[in-house]
């Protein structure tokens, strides 16, 4: 599998201090892997929205994996993804529908580095540039972590669900709809979201696994 995978895809039809409870969950339950939906709410403590936001905003290491669907008025493609986040590093892996690695982008203080399946490499100043080379669509990659976490540090909350979590966010020309949440280790985390942007771009993310905690996520 080479970088030409995406080019060959046939178009489809055209901070207040964290309370004691939150701190315990962050250092204990959250250190384990959780696949959504992995937990029955009736048997686990689910944090309030305020405490949930404090814990999520304080996470230094986390990982989200799942499936994505990206469409424009002219084409569409499906792919798997895994996003790994740490204080000074990001790593985004992209997979074809068979689970084979198409590309891996790593970001560190020196810049962004792309490695393709055929061994070719590229470098750029930021993740956005390299992701556009792989997907052939410009996405606000720097905002994706907050979108996946359900945070709105750079966005405006337009609507909230009954639990007080965002159901619609607005960030520049992008509108993010949270279609489904799921309990993960005491937190309520996004499971399905859809972002619509300029030029008729639609990005749909189904997050099937969360890994999070206070130490490096393998």
TrEMBL record:
Keywords: Cell outer membrane, Chaperone, Lipoprotein, Membrane, Palmitate, Protein transport, Signal, Transport. It is found in: Cell outer membrane. GO terms for cellular component: cell outer membrane. GO terms for biological process: protein transport. Residues 1-34 form the signal peptide. It is a lipid-anchor. The keyword Lipoprotein applies. NCBIfam families: lolB (TIGR00548). Belongs to the LolB family. Monomer. This is Outer-membrane lipoprotein LolB. The lineage of its organism: Bacteria, Pseudomonadati, Pseudomonadota, Acidithiobacillia, Acidithiobacillales.
């Amino acid at each position: 599998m080479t970088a030409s995978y995406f080019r060959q895809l046939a178009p489809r039809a055209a901070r207040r201090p964290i309370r004691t409870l939150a701190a315990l969950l962050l250092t204990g339950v959250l250190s384990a892997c959780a696949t959504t939906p992995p937990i029955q709410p009736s048997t686990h403590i689910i944090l309030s929205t305020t405490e949930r936001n404090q814990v999520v905003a304080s996470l230094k290491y986390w990982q989200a994996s799942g499936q994505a669907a990206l469409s424009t008025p002219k084409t569409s493609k499906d792919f798997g993804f895994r996003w790994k986040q740490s204080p000074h590093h990001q790593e985004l892996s992209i997979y074809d529908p068979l689970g084979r690695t198409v590309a891996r982008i790593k970001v560190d203080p020196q810049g962004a580095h792309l490695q393709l399946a055929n061994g070719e490499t590229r470098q750029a100043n930021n993740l956005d540039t390299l992701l556009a080379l792989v997907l052939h669509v410009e996405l606000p990659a720097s905002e994706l972590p907050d979108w996946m976490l359900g945070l709105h540090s750079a966005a405006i909350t337009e609507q909230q669900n009954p639990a007080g979590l965002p159901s619609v966010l607005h960030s520049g020309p992008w509108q993010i709809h949270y279609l489904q949440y799921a309990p993960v280790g005491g937190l309520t985390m996004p499971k399905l979201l859809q972002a619509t942007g300029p030029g008729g771009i639609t990005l749909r993310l189904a997050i099937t696994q969360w890994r999070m905690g206070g130490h490096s996520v393998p």
